[in-house]
Amino acid sequence: MTILTLNKQQLESKIGKITPELEDKISMFGTPVEEVTDDEVSVEIFPNRPDLLSFQGFTRALTCFLKKPRLLKYNVEDSKEKLIIKNSLPKQWPYAFACIVKGLKLDDEKIKEIIDIQEKIGASYHRKRKKGGIGLYPLDKIKFPIKFIGMKPEEIKFRPLEFPKEINGRQILSQHPTGREYGNICKDWDVFPIFIDDDNTIMSMPPIINSHEVGKINENTKDVFIEATGNDYEALRLGINMIVTALADMGGKIYSIDCEYQSGKKVKVPNLEPEKMPFSIENINKTLGLELNEKEIINLFEKMGIGYEKDNALIPAYRTDILHEIDLSEEVAIAYGYKNFQPEIPEISTIGEENNTEKLKRKISEILIGLELLEISTYHLSTKEKQFKKINIKDFKNQMIEVLDSKTENNILRNSLLAQSINILSENSDAQYPQKIFELGKTFKHDEDSETQVKETEKLCISLCYEKANFTEIKQILDYLTRMLDISYEIKETENPSFINGRCGEIIINNQSIGIIGEISPTVLKNNKIKMPTACLEIEISSLSL
User: Fold this and answer.
1) Chain segment 287-301, per-residue pLDDT in tens
2) 3-state SS of the chain: helix, strand, coil percent to 5?
3) DSSP for 289-310?
4) Under CATH, which number does the domain 2-66 receive?
5) Per-residue pLDDT tens for 196-217?
6) CATH of domain 356-543
7) Phi, then psi, of 447 in degrees rounded to 5
8) How far, in Å, CA of 62 to CA of 335, rounded?
9) Is the pLDDT of residue 239 over 90?
10) 275-338 architecture in CATH?
11) pTM for the whole thing?
12) In the predicted model, is pLDDT for residue 447 greater than 80?
């Protein structure tokens, strides 16, 4: 989550005096109040509401919630200007949007607010600029049409923002503070993206830095050119909508730009028309356990800044969090007030019992904790680098289950716990030894017979990392575990790219292979910067029984 700190006096001018009662209402809106001082109010903004990351966005939503329920509409005029997006761009950074906002009255505080909006959207919604970045420029210093093109880094030469001299694109990554911070995004690209105006003046090198000459706004700036570039089309579209509406709330007038791709695609930006989402009043009432009529639903929508038109909710163009009808139910619940819901005992009679797999996992956990092992819990999602490459697995295409539209760099469902365990040891390579850890959790693999074509398997992974960790040490733990569970097993020598040949075995129970045990290979240790010998085992626990 992000902490948004607001000027108390400015906030009170919009929503009224901050009292304990009003603090409670702000928290019930879904933005818990962190702290209130004489000068400032700090609130928590959750990742699903990046539109609240500015004073303008927060007060816009809160004013609807507390005082004036309505769907806000923004007027957009056509500037008749063009942005031309060339095919020479790096494939990792192919998209661009742009528009104009005129008539701003800026001072030092408002400039800081604008920069803060930029940074917060870039850091949160655009994932530290990995999905995209936003730039602003004084309109009077550039000449249309603007081009977004790719150039070799050594051929790009301009003075970056707040830097004393002109340097090339590659030097920006190593010499400029912002280049050092975000340079890992584009350091391996053959060409870097740049904006140039009709006078061939370099305006910026996204996603890193603007030009000092034409990319710096100040108190004299009235009109601004705004661009959003990156690799996530939808995130860029919504990102530019968020910053444009915030600037409009500052008093600016919005003008669209025709964004023309060399491929032939044309987009007029921004499009601030609300999105229509069909919904059922019956479904909302069933989800929430209420009996609201159409008029009541409309009023609650408007408290959340959402409109209504013929069985459709009208979603504001700057909202990124409403993706499904169930999200509309949540909006209604917030507007209705969670404290107004009446608790009820369900009219059902059931007998609950702990799942056998959970019983087994709890028993295994108790046994291993008794051996002074520390239990860890890692994410189901990982990356190709961590899940396969770093543990020396090269042929992984058939094993990989990729998640579409992942919101983070972690976009691979884990197929083993071993890689996660190795990664934990890598991240703690400077911590105290010995390190003895275990994890019980789900793994995923392809299964064409399944409805989802994915099979979930519960596994156990144990890892020992210290000076004397070896095959004997890890086998002693397996011996004790199986003895406590009254299970017999045998080990058959095998080969695995993650383990040392001759010190790796297949674990067999009832003539079935249930896992692997051995010493981790030096290559894997080096890949993960692990400084001590490491021994691991991983088994499917479905073959075990209490």
Assistant:
1) 999 999 999 999 999
2) 30, 30, 40
3) T----HHHHHHHHHHTT-EE-S
4) 3.30.56.10
5) 999 999 999 999 999 999 999 9
6) 3.30.930.10
7) -150, 100
8) 11
9) yes
10) 2-Layer Sandwich (3.30)
11) 0.71
12) no
